[in-house]
Specification:
single chain, 834 residues, alpha/beta, seven-stranded mixed β-sheet, 43 strands, binds zinc ion
Length: 834
């Protein structure tokens, strides 16, 4: 018996469980669908580059109409996209979009996979994308996912050429094509075989052609499949499911309307065997594909025929029969899958409600947590509980489960040996274009396996099963009712540094404070606030950084260990990091901070990052001191402004008035402020009067290209275009070298455009009124010169500037030139009256 359990445990742990979703029971029609799915042994894998590239309607149709095992491999987590929700960028945006994609999959029923590729921003060529990603590394990931998923058919979203519109798009299809044959070649990536996969040859690789209006890649004589239509069991058309799924990408603002009725999808062959009528031509996706499987199909048909939606538990006996027949088959991919599906059906048909919950979102590593276990048999079937195991803690809880009787037990579980809950792709330092993961078996997974799992040993009609439930945080809010969030394990010490970026000019000294707290949490909902560090802990210190002198700040009130004085010793240089570390005995740990990201449409996200600060040494002069900032879609520019030495007042609809603006040296609008605040257009006159009377308005990029945007942002008309320069090292030419923007108080040179990240700029101005001066011109390789990255004009006694240059990326990254150029923009109205 023991061997049986542990084999199950291993198998189930290898499966992906959704973390922290409200536990749900299937209704009678969903159970019927799952029964029908038992007879379908076919699978389709869709491959593209980003969250939101995938064709959700096709995925919904494949998964719910054809009942194929359906997966979407998004090579990246969309880290380089825009963020319409807040100020998270890069890795953090990737974390958000991972959860948005999982929310989409819960609606359309497909599974989600990722490679280690990092979305480094817009790319114009396949070659650039493959170079950044490390072609062989990401190819190995695609091969790995194919070998694990064993798709019969692989579908790409994009062509392999320029028509894909984005280098990462074409690269995703190039890699899919290479992986289609590499996956079946035993000589390619043979190191994967020791993890239980083998070579796999899919039948065909198709490109899902599209007609996006401006680009039509479809032809009427190619393979076409009708994927519209209504699914009575879901009560929805596939166009509706697709829209609901796609609308989960809220960070991208991709909400779409539902569609109904006919919808055709077009396919062309990239590799493998031609298909004439269906995607699955020449694929046997019935039980006959398994030796000895044919008889099971008849059993499943009987199961479906005898199914009584009024009492699904009547199906249990037949399910056990199916289960045993599958168990007798030789080991293999479909045997594993189908056995798990039958077990899930048994759980559903018996109306079992099983949960393992905690009343705290966080627990501290190696400490303990109280777990509430609850189990109810909501049928007349004969079911017993034989025990529960959580992190090697066993309960002797044995119980015959009487119908509708609610059994509860609370169990104190030591978390000994369990790691902190860090997203697996963030455990190792990343490379510039890809994540590093040292555990091959995790690659492809959309997210971590749950921090803690409860294994319930159950007998249904005398037959033993192990049912795994993730331990989740369960809480009730008066306004929303019962809610579920992830339960995570945090380090014993959580710290933070303030500020996180220090800008040095000359020999001026800056101060840095590191807060560190020992966590002693038990039963707390919020991130626990801690006691003080134990006596045994050694002193906290900062790692040395070339060019900077770091010493303890003995003048600070409080623990001198936590306050540092930093002086730049040799002026201009590249940004440097310092990290906070603590030594206990002969061990030195980098202190960690916890970042929590919380949005309504996705589960709470927590991750840990080393505590440190970026030191930027540059020759930075500022003039002016007071700035009004209108926050847009979210950016970290105000923090940077404060670090530069300005006083920042946040402006909003209520306080943005002539009287408040009048004393300000500059007003800056956050990224996409005009996109997210319609009221800003209503303040046009107030802002223009401020400029006319000697003020200085600086507008960071917006996407809005309406007539309103053309005439009600600046004093003279200009339009906002899609033009961008994505090469962060593109040469910058000074079109108007005499303009004060380039001289006062900082003399701007080519040096100021060194070390930029991701891109130069986006949403450049175009068709600008001749009153504007276009200060720079720049372009990506092989493209026309773009002049709208920074346009500026005098208006009355003041100045107006529109910038497509991505200060919101470069300032937090500590790029010295971005600080110096922004200081000059702010200074525009300072020197002209002198
Ligand atoms: Zn994309």
């Amino acid at each position: 018996m023991k061997i049986f359990f542990s084999a199950w445990l291993l198998f189930l742990l290898a499966d992906n469980h959704a973390v922290a979703q409200a536990p749900e029971s299937l209704n009678a029609s969903q159970i019927l669908v799952q029964m029908k799915k038992l007879n379908v042994l076919g699978s389709v894998l869709y491959i593209a580059a980003h969250p939101d590239d995938e064709n959700t309607r096709l995925l919904a149709w494949l998964s719910n109409e054809k009942l194929y095992r359906t997966g979407y491999l998004s090579l990246t987590r969309g880290d380089g996209g825009q963020n319409l929700l807040g100020d998270e960028q890069g890795v953090e945006l990737g974390l958000i979009r991972t959860q948005e994609l999982l929310a989409a999959r819960r609606i359309d029923g497909a599974e989600q996979f990722f490679s280690r590729a990092f979305d480094f921003g817009f790319s114009k060529t396949t070659e650039e994308s493959l170079r950044f990603w490390d072609k062989q590394k990401i190819l190995s990931d695609v091969v790995w996912v194919i070998r694990k998923f064993q798709p019969d058919v692989i579908i790409t979203r994009f062509p392999e050429d320029k028509r894909a519109g984005h280098g990462q798009h074409s690269a995703s299809s190039v890699l899919a094509h290479l992986a289609f044959s590499a996956a079946s070649d035993p000589k390619q990536f043979p190191e994967q075989f020791k993890y239980g996969v083998g070579p796999w040859q899919a039948k065909r690789l198709l490109w899902n052609n599209y007609n996006f209006g401006d680009v039509n890649t479809t032809r009427e004589d190619q393979l076409k499949i009708e994927v519209g239509g209504f699914n009575p069991i879901l009560g929805k058309s596939y166009g509706e499911v697709a829209a609901d799924s796609r609308s989960q990408h809220r960070s991208q603002g991709f909400g779409v309307a539902r569609s109904y009725g006919h919808a055709l999808e077009y396919f062309s062959l990239t590799a493998g065997k031609e298909a004439d009528k269906t995607l699955m031509d020449d694929v046997d996706y019935s039980w006959k594909r398994l030796p000895g499987g044919a008889a099971i199909e008849a059993l499943v048909n009987g199961l479906i025929k005898n199914y009584d939606p009024a009492d699904p538990s009547k199906s249990l006996q037949e399910l056990i029969l199916v289960y045993d027949r599958i168990a007798a088959l030789p080991d293999g991919y479909w045997k594993k899958k189908k056995r798990a599906e039958v077990q899930d059906l048994m759980e559903s048909c018996s109306g079992l409600w099983i949960e393992a919950t905690v009343h705290q979102a966080y627990a501290v590593k190696d400490q303990q947590v109280m777990v509430g276990l609850q189990i109810i048999n909501r049928s007349a079937a004969d079911i017993t509980l034989d025990g529960v195991t959580i992190n090697q803690t066993d309960t002797a809880w044995k119980q015959k489960l009487e119908p509708e009787e609610n059994y509860r037990v609370s169990l104190r579980v030591p978390l000994t040996g369990l790691p902190i809950t860090q997203p697996y792709w963030l455990k190792e330092p990343m490379s510039s274009g890809s994540y590093n993961v040292d555990d091959q078996t995790l690659i492809g997974d959309p997210q971590n396996r749950p921090a803690l799992v409860a294994a319930f040993r159950i007998s249904i009609l005398g037959r033993p099963f192990v049912i795994q439930k993730p331990v989740i945080y369960d809480f009730t809010q008066p306004a929303k009712g019962e809610s579920f969030e992830p339960f995570i394990i945090i380090p014993q010490t959580i710290a933070s540094a303030n500020p996180q970026i220090l800008v040095f000019s000359g020999k001026a000294e800056k101060k840095l404070e590191v807060n560190s707290q020992l966590k002693v949490a038990d039963g707390q909902k919020e991130m626990p606030s801690g006691g003080s560090l134990p006596e045994s802990a050694g002193p906290l210190r900062l790692t040395p950084s070339p060019g900077f002198k770091i010493s303890a700040d003995l003048s600070a009130a409080g623990n001198p260990d936590h306050y540092f004085r930093i002086v730049s010793e040799d002026g201009n240089q590249k940004p440097e990091w310092v990290w906070a570390v603590q030594t206990s005995g002969n061990r030195t740990d980098t202190l960690l901070q916890c970042r929590t990201i919380s949005y309504e449409h996705i589960p709470r996200i927590d991750y840990f990052k080393p505590v440190g600060a970026k030191l930027v040494s540059t020759d930075l002069q500022i003039s002016g001191s007071t700035i009004g900032y209108v926050e847009g879609a979210g950016d970290k520019v105000p923090d940077a402004l404060r670090e530069m030495g300005y006083t920042v007042t946040i402006l909003n609809e209520n306080n943005l008035s002539g009287a408040v603006l009048q004393p300000l040296d500059a007003v800056i609008t956050g990224v996409r402020a005009y996109d997210v605040h319609d009221w800003l257009f209503g303040k046009y006159r107030v802002l223009m009067d401020y400029v006319k009377n000697g003020g200085n308005l600086i507008v960071q990029y917006n996407r809005n290209n309406s007539e309103n945007a053309r005439t009600r942002i600046g004093p003279y008309p200009f339009s906002i275009s899609n033009a961008r320069v994505t090469e962060e090292d593109a040469a910058v030419n000074f079109v108007h070298p005499e303009n004060p923007v380039l001289h006062e108080p900082n003399r701007i040179t080519d040096m100021d455009f060194e070390g930029w990240i991701q891109e130069r700029g986006i949403y450049f101005a175009t068709h600008a009124d001749p009153q504007y001066q276009e200060i720079f011109s720049m372009h990506d390789a092989g493209e026309q010169d773009q002049k709208g990255s920074l346009i500026t004009a005098k208006y009355g006694k003041g100045n107006f500037t529109y910038i497509g240059l991505v200060f919101f990326r470069e300032l937090p990254a500590g790029v010295p030139g971005a600080y110096r150029l922004l200081a000059n923009l702010i200074a525009l109205n300072q020197h002209q009256h002198k």
